[in-house]
Design brief:
The chain is mainly alpha-helical and 642 residues long. The protein folds into 2 domains: 359 residues, Hydantoin permease, CATH 1.10.4160; 133 residues, Rossmann fold (3-Layer(aba) Sandwich). Helices cover 69% and strands 6% of the residues. The protein contains 27 helices and 7 strands. It has a 5-stranded parallel beta sheet. The chain has a two-stranded parallel sheet with strand order 1-2. Helix 8 runs antiparallel to helix 16 and helix 11 packs across helix 20. It is globular and about 90 Å long.
């Protein structure tokens, strides 16, 4: 089955999906560049988040400029993988999580989803700790209070999400620019040796510890949540579906990835160069903690602005990474599970999952435990990384998904080489960390062995399956086709005639713009009599402004929702089914019931997602709230799997 034949209930980041128009072909190149620029910038902040700072500081303070080549190699790998993620979103019209949901059986998707959620939590943990440390360095705020304060980031992101994706990208660009300016100041004060920097691009590993730090740099560079994020953000641009437009979009996104990730390379290299020119040069060879680096900058450089610029850069890094991390959490949940909860609840959940372990560690082990937490977050990311890279390479090599835009054979070979290198280095990093835990926890080593060995075994089996899946799928599809053909030959269903019922005349259809519109409208058309029916398309806008002011809010979401209803009504009217629109604002259940009673509908068509009990509270199900308030018949159309 082709990708286009498999409907997805929700568009990726539906609130901003295809919200940015692309210029026509005859426009100058810089107009195309400006239209495309944004997604890769948002992705790039994940490559300069607080989780990367420790390895960069350690590499520079211990080995001078010798490991800059590792940063460059990591950056080239990241450019390749991120360009593949953008290709999947543009040509395949799916983000990585959606593609996995469609490709793999449930028993594979569930652990993949859990691993992705754990990885996003680990990423957010590093961002929470980085922001809290920055607040402590700038204002003397206790680390525990700083961690709690980061919960407000969720409210800030919720506010910014209503501005549109372009303004959100602008905020991230401003934060990235702040980081860049801060480290330009650090480099100016540090006066690095440019000849030594040039020599650092020659591959060399002074000793075994340098290898360990290099592995840490590589392991902290390519982050799994960025692959999910980029494949979704690439779809925020409204790209034509002809080959020329898709090819042009892929080319511009590849250029955008290269430029943006090179900015991230500059930041990481600046951290390492600063550590080398300030700490290594002055005999401080063991600076790996962010707090130690901040404390030593002023006495060594003799400038008060140095530690301030360092802390501001750290705060900007944590905040920018927070934005992208929470968006990735929304993408993963909607894509893997094919369901959507309210965005504010999803973002709050992501942040709480990161805050809770940070608070527990600080309360029980003290503020000195933050360094170990950052290392642990990188190990967790290393465990999940191959489960994002390997499916991505399969998908962009599969003609069923990306059509004529599959990657060339040499690109496939290069991608698999990168995946192999990253997988091998991350396996070594994970095994080294587990060996360290066993050595340091002799009395509880049995607990680590009894939990980690079965877990690593299960993960190994899962990665083998994901790697071999294309071959297994072909075998299964061939066997299933043979079985279905045999069954079709043997079985036939008896046809029974039923009397045609009296057609409904006033049919109200509740639409939630979750991708189910076609299913619901098709059902309405199927049971309606063209000569007598009147259709009413209903929707309730639930934005914060709409809940408070009703339709008087007249915000962007209300205007957009109204236009969607008008467009659908026009299509139905042209088909011979006269349709009117009714838009409500606020709480869905009472608003829909009021509309239904006002238009005197005799049938209401609503979509059912199969949620019950506590899930009703989470997903905002309104069916029960509507049917108890109206006299009309209510037809619930099941949408799961549709």
């Amino acid at each position: 089955m082709k990708n286009s034949e498999k409907p997805q209930k929700y568009k990726s980041l539906a609130e901003v999906h295809e919200s940015v128009p692309m210029p026509s072909r005859n426009k100058p190149w810089w107009r195309h560049w400006l239209a495309v620029t944004g997604p890769a910038i948002m992705v790039s902040v994940g490559y300069m988040d607080p989780g990367n700072w420790a390895t960069d500081l350690a590499g520079g303070s211990r080995y001078n400029y010798a490991l800059i080549w590792v940063l460059l190699m990591s950056n080239l790998m990241a450019i390749l993988l991120q360009s593949l993620a953008a290709r999947l979103g543009i040509a395949g019209r799916r983000d990585l999580a959606q593609a996995c949901h469609e490709e793999y059986p449930a028993w594979v998707n569930i652990p993949l989803y859990i691993l992705a959620e754990i990885a996003i939590t680990a990423t957010d943990l590093a961002e929470v700790l980085g922001s809290a440390i920055a607040l402590q360095l700038l204002f003397g705020l206790p680390l525990l209070y700083g961690v709690m304060l980061t919960a407000l980031d969720t409210l800030l992101l919720l506010l910014m999400s209503h501005w549109g994706i372009r303004k959100l990208e602008g905020v991230v660009m401003a934060l990235v620019g702040t980081i860049g300016v801060a480290f330009v100041i650090e480099l100016f004060l540090g006066k690095p040796e440019w000849g030594g920097i040039a020599q650092g691009f020659v591959p060399t590993l002074p000793d075994s510890t340098a290898l360990y730090i290099a592995i840490g740099i590589l392991g902290a560079t390519v982050m799994p949540h960025n692959l999910y994020l980029h494949s979704s953000l690439a779809q925020t641009r409204k790209i034509g579906r002809n080959k020329h437009d898709i090819k042009s979009a892929i080319r511009w996104n590849t250029i955008d990835s290269a430029v943006s990730l090179n900015l991230a390379f500059f930041v990481n290299a600046a951290i390492l160069v600063m550590a080398a020119s300030v700490f290594y040069r002055n005999g401080y060879f063991e600076v790996a903690e962010i707090q130690d680096a901040h404390r030593l900058l002023e006495p060594i450089l003799g400038a008060k602005i140095a530690p301030i610029a360092f802390a501001i850069a750290l705060l900007a890094s944590g905040q920018s990474s927070t934005i992208t991390g929470t968006l990735a959490g929304q993408i993963v949940m909607e894509g893997y599970l094919n369901l959507r909860i309210r965005p504010w609840l999803r973002r709050l959940l992501t942040r709480l999952l990161a805050i809770v372990p940070a608070i527990i560690a600080i309360m029980y082990f003290g503020e000195d435990s933050t360094g170990e937490l950052l290392v642990l977050s990188q190990v967790v990311l290393s465990l999940q990384l191959p489960f994002a890279i390997i499916p991505l390479i399969h998908f962009v090599s599969d003609r069923r998904r990306v059509g004529d835009f599959t990657i060339a054979r040499w690109v496939q070979g290069l991608a698999w080489l990168v995946a192999g290198i990253i997988l091998a280095l991350n396996i070594k990093l994970v095994l080294d960390e587990i060996s360290k835990w066993l050595t340091e926890s002799a009395s509880t080593a049995w607990l680590i062995r009894s939990t980690m060995i079965p877990l690593l075994g299960a993960l190994a089996l899962l990665i083998i399956y994901v790697t071999l899946h294309p071959w297994l799928r072909q075998k299964f599809e061939k066997a299933r086709a043979t079985t279905e053909t045999d069954m079709h030959r043997r079985a036939s269903l008896p046809q029974t005639a039923f009397a045609t019922p009296q057609p409904y005349r006033r049919v109200a259809i509740a639409l939630d713009f979750s991708g189910s519109e076609k299913r619901l409208l098709s059902e309405a058309v199927r049971i309606s009599d063209q000569q007598h029916v009147q259709l009413f398309l209903m929707h309730v806008t639930e934005s914060p402004a709409a809940r408070i002011l009703g339709q008087n809010a007249a915000d962007r979401e209300i205007r957009t929702d109204h236009q969607k209803l008008v467009d659908l009504a026009q299509i139905l009217t042209e088909m011979g089914f006269p349709a009117e629109v009714r838009l409500g604002a606020g709480d869905p259940a009472p608003e829909l019931a009021k509309i239904i009673n006002d238009v005197n509908a005799d049938l209401v068509i609503m979509g059912g997602h199969g949620h019950t009990g506590v899930s009703d509270l989470v997903y905002g199900t309104t069916i029960n709230g509507v049917r108890h308030r109206v006299q009309a018949s209510v037809l619930v159309v099941p949408l799961d799997g549709g």
